[in-house]
Amino acid sequence: MKKLINNPTKVVEEMIEGYVKAYPNHVRQLTENERALVTAKETREGKVGVLIGGGSGHEPAFIGYVGDGMADGVAVGNIFASPPPDPILEATKVIDKGEGVIYVYGNYAGDVMNFGMAAELADLESGIRVGSVLVTDDVASAPKEEKEKRRGIAGEFFVTKAAGAAADKGYNLDDVVRVAQKANDYTRTMGVGLTPCSLPQTGKPSFVLAENEMEIGLGHHGEPGIEKGDLQPADQVVDRLVHDILTDMPIDSGEKVAVLVNGLGSTTNMELYIMFRRVEQILSEKGIEIHRSYVGSYSTSLEMGGASVTITKLDEELAAFIDHPADCPMYVQK
Amino acid sequence: MKITAEEIKVFLKNVVTMIEAEKDYLCELDRKLGDGDHGVTMSIGWQAVNEKLEGDLKEEQDCGKISIVTGRTFLSAVGSSVGPLYATGFMRGAKAFQGKSELSGEDLKDFWIAFIEGIKERGKAEVGDKTMIDTLQPALESLQSNFGKSNDFLSAFESVVQAAEKGMESTKDILSKRGRSSRLGERSLGTIDPGAASSFMILKTFLTTIKSAQVA
User: Given this model, what pLDDT does residue B183 score?
Assistant: First the structure.
C-alpha cells in the first residue's frame, strides 16, 4: 500500500507535530508528555475536564475533537493501540480544575487497562476524581445479552459530544458521567467494510476481502464482522445496517434521533451522502425524526474502505447537548 | 545458583534480540487473529528497554530497579494491551528482586510467580481464553510444584519452559474468547495466539540465559 510518510516508526510523532503546528489556537502539546494534547484555551475553572483518547490511525478521531464544547484533552497511542497511562495521567492533571475528569474511550482490552491504571494513579498521586464511560456502540461486536463486551466505534463521537456539552454547561462529574453513559446506552452503530487498511510498520493489509466482497460488522481495526458476502448496492447495505440497529434498539414513531454516516477512510463523501439518503428514507417512513445529522469521515481506520451508520436516540436532555455549539479543529457546530 | 544483575541485563538484552528476530512471525500470527501488529508492538517496547539498558541502567546493580524500569519503559513505549500486561509482570516481579544485586533460585522463583500472578490479575483472562495465560498458567503451576520438590531452580525452570510450550501449542485448538480476536469464532482455530507465543519466547530466553550463565 502506498503511503506518504517518512519513517514508519515516526508517523505518530510527525502527525502530532504537524497537527499542533496547524491548529495552535486549539491545541497544545504538553512538555511533560508529547503524546498528551490539551485545549490551547485552558480549561475553565470549576468545569469538569473531558479526556478522550485511543490509538492513532482513526483521525480526525481522537485529536480532532479537542476544543470548546467537546474534549479538553486527548491521549494519543501508537497506531491502533491504546496510549499508555502516562499521557492520560499528564493530560488529566492539566485539565482537572478541581471538579474531576471524565474519561470517554472505546471498550477495548488495552484501553480499559491503560485508562484504568491512569485513573488509579490520578487518584493516588494527585487526588483527582475520575469517572469513566466506555463506549460500546458496535452492535456487530457482541450479541445484545453481552452488550458490555461490545466495542466502541463511530458512536464515540456522540458520547464525547454529550459529555463535552454537559461539562460545558457546568454539570458536576456525576452528572457528566450520567449523561455520557445515557448517550452511550442510546447509541448504536453498524458498519460495513469493503477494502482493508495496512499498518505503516508492516505495509501488509490487516485482513483480506475479495474484489467483489463486503463484510458486515467489520471492526475498526479489521476485526472480523458477522457476515461476508457479495457487495450489494448502497440501499440494500443501508437497509441491513439500519435494520440491525433498530432490531437491537427499537425506536418508536415520533422519537428523535441524531444520525452519523461515517466513512472509514477511503470511502468518498459521495458514497456517504448516497447512504444517508437511504437512512433518511427509512427513518422518515417509520416516523422517526432526524433531529441532527452528520455525514463525513469522523472516525477512520487509516485507508480502510467502508462506512458505518450510527443512530442515537435523543430525549430532551440529549437533544439539547447534541445542539450545543462546538469549536474543534476537525468539527465546528454553531 | 546465583544470578547477578549483569546477567539479568543480559537476559533483557537477549529478549531484545529475540524479539527483533521473531517480529515478523509474531505479526503474522496476529494478522490471522487481530490487527497484525503484535511483533511491531513488542519491538517498539523492547527497543525502548534496550535504550535504557544502554543508558540509565548501564551501571545499575539493583535487580529490583532494573525490573521496575524495564516494566515502566515498556509500558510507556507501547500502551496497547501487552503494555500493561508485561509491565505489571515486571513491576510485580521487581518486589522479589528489591535491593538485591545477586539473586538466589528462591528469588527467581518468587519473581516469576509474582510476574505471572500480576499478569493474571491485570488481564483477568483464564486458561482456555486463547491468550498468554494459556502459556503462563501451566508455567506457574510447573514452577510451584517442581521448585518445591527439588529447590533446584534451573531444573525446575526447564520443566516450566516445557509446560509453557505445551500451553502455547494448546492455543491452536481453542476459539478466541478475549481481546479483539474474540469475535473470530472458528476462524481463530489453527493459529497460536501471538501473546501466548511471545510469553513463551520470553520464558525460553530466560532459560537459555541462566543456562549459559551457569556454564560460564
Answer: 59
Of the candidates A26, A220, A221, A324, the residue annotated as catalytic is: A221
**Which domain does B185 fall in, by range?**
2-215
pLDDT class of B111 with cuts at 50, 70, 90: very high
A108–chain B Cβ distance below 8 A for any pair: yes
Q: Which of B8, B38, B10 is nearest to B26 (CA)?
A: B38
Active site residue A221: yes
Is A54 in the B-facing interface, judged by CB distances under 8 Å? no
pLDDT of residue A43: 87
CATH architecture for segment(s) A8-186: 3-Layer(aba) Sandwich (3.40)
Cα gap A198→B145, rounded to integer Å: 45
The ipTM value here is: 0.84
Residue B122 to residue A113, Cβ atoms within 8 A: yes
CATH number at residue B183: 1.25.40.340
Among the listed residues A199, A190, A249, the one whose alpha carbon sits nearest the alpha carbon of residue A218: A190
Q: Which CATH code is given to the segment(s) A187-323?
A: 3.30.1180.20
Q: What is the pLDDT of residues B28-55, one digit of tens each?
A: 998 888 778 899 999 999 999 999 999 9
Residue pair A71/A327 in contact (Cβ under 8 Å)? The answer is no
Q: What residue ranges of chain A have pLDDT lower than 50?
A: none
A79 neighbourhood in chain B, CB within 8 Å: 37
CATH 3.30.1180.20 intervals, chain A: 187-323
Give the separation between CA B67 and CA B69, rounded to whole angstroms.
6
pLDDT of residue A177: 98
Taking any CB pair shorter than 8 Å as contact, residues of chain B touching chain A are 27, 31, 34-37, 40-41, 44, 75-85, 122-123, 178-185, 187
